Known about the structure:
Layout (H helix, E strand, L loop, with lengths): L1 E5 L2 H16 L5 E5 L3 H13 L9 E5 L1 E3 L9 H8 L20 H15 L2 E2 L2 E2 L3 E4 L24 E5 L6 E5 L1 H6 L3 E5 L5 H9 L19 E6 L6
Parallel strand pairs: 1-11, 2-3, 2-7, 7-10, 10-11
Antiparallel strand pairs: 4-9, 5-6, 8-9
Helix pairs in contact: 1-2
Amino acid sequence: MELKIYKDKKKVAEQFSAYFANSVKGKPEFHVALSGGSTPKIVFDVLASDYSDKIEWNNIHFYWGDERCVPPTDDQSNYKMTMEHLFSKITVPKKNIHRVLGEAEPDREAMRYANLLEINLDRVEGTPQFDLVILGMGDDGHTASIFPHEIALWDAMDHCVVATHPDSGQKRVSINGKVINRAKEVAFLVTGASKAEKVKSIVEKTEGFMAYPASLVNPNSGNLVWFMDEAAAAK
């Protein structure tokens, strides 16, 4: 893994945006799985303000690594956040935005979205391959919506799974570990002091680190980049 550490969340967003712009440059088609959370929100703001006319948005297809099972108008929707902070400020064809239908029945939607990935993406050994998967990490070491108490979902047969938040019980649709690790590139966006303990455990492989789903991110391509602020990397 490659560790990139910057002063604060804003700097992380700026550097990741530059990395993203470089990744998509010259590609006639680029398929990316987005993440929710506070850091991606700032990333989307930077992309919208600094790169709206510098990126060929027509060539990019947007998906989500996970989505909360709520309507697209709900404040918890990752789609709504992306729409407000990025899509409403750039010119991107509607057909390039492939949202998870959070308002649909979760099991049925997981099957539909898995099927969509199979149709739209190249498959390697039967697994859909994204050009880039963007991930966050929770304070508990979860990533996408694979939580420690359901870590077995990482190895699920289906490309998309239905996960349950350990505290709220909220259902979420998430891609599984096989899809994450099949991506050509995987980038973590991890900021804040509350993440420092888990970052240290995963990076240094301390005792018990395998209990955290984020520790299982190990793409076959070998292309794994962590974008962190100093607070998250403090330990």
